[in-house]
Specification:
eight-stranded antiparallel beta barrel, 174 residues, mainly beta, 1 helix
């Protein structure tokens, strides 16, 4: 956990340093709505720039589990992100940040070869995010790929699991 916090601290300092000489937002859009997915999760995402390189993102996702006996969930995530350009083209940006989530997990257990519903558990935790995005100039589309490790205060964590990596496609509004 200390290494992850150190990594986010260093990335934040690099972001502030890289963007210190830029005036406005590194993105070519103000708000974007779309989907975020990987083979095990699918969700809706909304990103909005507050001022300059500062953005907030909300994600509502569903985890399928990939097996009949796995629990499924719905998770609500709120993230703060700091964006910066890493090339001389405004279409490409990197971002890093963090936030929190609340999830509701349906769980099962096995007893004598029979599956039983173990109810629904609420989970609360912290999230980090680090990614890269590309915004098309000719069409209102933003594509991004990111790593979003998380830690649940109740239940398990998934720093390097199947929910870690995601890709997003968003419709942009100026």
């Amino acid at each position: 956990m200390k290494r992850i916090l150190l990594l986010f601290g260093v990335l934040s300092l690099m972001a502030f340093q890289a963007n210190a000489q830029r005036g406005g937002s590194p993105a070519d859009y103000k708000t974007a709505l779309g989907i975020r997915t990987n083979p095990w999760t699918v969700g809706f995402t909304a990103k909005h720039f507050l001022q300059g390189p500062h953005a907030i993102e909300g994600i509502v996702s569903h985890y399928f589990g990939g097996r009949d006996d796995a629990g499924s969930n719905v998770t609500f995530t709120g993230l703060y992100q700091f964006h910066w350009g890493f090339t001389n083209k405004s279409e490409w940006n990197m971002y890093a940040g963090g936030g929190a989530h609340v999830g509701f997990w349906r769980d099962y257990y096995w007893d004598n070869g029979r599956r039983h519903n173990d109810g629904t558990d609420a989970v609360v935790g912290l999230d980090g995010i680090f990614g890269v995005e590309y915004t098309f100039k000719s069409i209102p589309l933003n594509l991004s790929a990111d790593a979003k490790p998380f830690f649940n205060f109740t239940g398990g964590h998934d720093f390097i699991g199947e929910q870690l990596i995601g890709v997003s496609a968003r419709y942009t509004f100026k």
